[in-house]
Structure prediction request, 584 residues.
Amino acid sequence: MNIVVPIKQVPDVVEELEINSDGKDLNRDAVKYKMNEWDESALEEALQLKDLHGGTVTVLAVAAGDVDEMLFTCLAKGADHATKVVGDFEEGLDSHTAARALASAMQGQSYDLILTGVQAADDLDGQVGVLLATYLGLPHISVVSGITVDPATHTATVQQEYAGGVMATFEVDLPTLLGVQAARAIPRYAPVSRVRQAMKTAKLNEIEADPAVGAGVTVRRVFKPESGGHAEMIEGDTQEVIDRVIEILRERGIWRA
Amino acid sequence: MAEQDVFVIAEHLEGKLSEVTFEMLGKARAIAPALGGQTIAVLLGHQVAALAEQLGAADQVLLVDDSALEHFIPEQAGQVIKALLQREQPALILVGNTSMGMDLAAALSAALDWSLIAYCGDVQVEDGQILAISQIYGGKIAVEAASKSNHTIVSVLAGAFPAAEGRATKSASIQTLPSGIAVSAGRMRFKGLTVPEAGDVDITRESLLVSVGRGIGSKDNIELVEELASALGAALSASRPIIDSGWLPKLRQVGKSGLTVKPKLYLAVGISGAPEHLQGMKDAELIIAINSDPSAPIFEVAHYGIVGDLFDIVPALSEQVAAVRSE
Prediction:
């Protein structure tokens, strides 16, 4: 079972996001990047499937900005190979360009399964996974949370989540691309010492790709959403805050009889 | 039908059209005149004439009826819609940014080389050009984006527009089409639908909810919010990360892939408020949010907000609520 996990970095939304002076992008100099959290789930699921069925896990990232540390971290977690897709790529790469670069890097490669995060915080022009699957001519299922692979029939049985906890079960022929919503376990953590060791001993592969331009979108304006209906903030020390909350609950007749 | 039309991809599950379908129809009706086109609903399924009848807000319903489309299968649905769009060449296609719509929107964009603008909370037409406002970075940033192609696919966040505008006021004009798909060629097979068993608590029926998010940090700390819920006489619900971590059961999840709730009180503890979560609770009568991040999007929908450390506030609030209620 050879599994490819395309991954990317996204701005950490826990940090304050600044907008560039031209109003058309984030201020990339001030952005703190982290691995897309859904990609972390895709990697975890891939590593778990490898434990069950053997084979390899290859992580693949378009080198838009510095992706080395992220790739070494994946190796430290148990990925077998890490590949950088290099070319003239800029930070804040759109999903269509990323998907075309990944597709060109994967052309002619052999794999059974591609797992991606179902989405990322910055995919303005759609989810990279589905775009990639379409460029590669593969079937794809998004919002997947349970994956079982049957090597004998070369199929996967997966659950797709709908609202309210309703799930559809599909059987799909391999190779396929699955957009992972949640892995069977919380994504593992790699201690810094292991990441440092991977940096010293492991090698990153490189594949060249041309940035192909598709029907993307034109960003006209980036802004912080209008706080039209912003909350009335309750200020003060803990006691003052609590007194005010109790007062509000009383005013609204919240207590259950 | 003409190249100025707005197509709405209808979504349904277990014999029921989803709300986002009506929300998109209402929006399509509002903007189609600015493009000089009509609103066309596209419905795929098998023996779903009764659903087609509910789509009268569209000028026309294109119904593709085929036994192979009895259940939604991403691959088959994608093929049928792609063939339809290739033939009709509409200006704008609205798809729900939902589990079903995610597989369709990006696949159609890649296959047809038409622009896709995802996570949209609004769509407008300005001088004949389609503009969409997307909510990205967990709802912290909005982007006004324009299409680069003559045909634009927009995936729309559920709950972005009022559904009432898209409900039928007249009977639907329905055109039935053959699907033309070769079923045996499919690489994907539908195996069944699972509906979760009812749990001990139905959070959609509770009038008071205390809801916990990632800010709680660890499973052991859930106890703190349980105490607050118990002091208030409220039920405990949660955002997605808590469920994914296995700290609370699936039926306690509020949001896009969970349940939609409209309680009298929604007290959000350590929930930042990603669009997927807000979708499930923004219509609660009273929303109070406690979060350490003053720029958390939850404060955009909350009526009252508290910026602070939940580990200070929650235990003290539990104690005081319990004291007040025992008076």
Remarks:
- The radius of gyration of chain A is 22 Å.
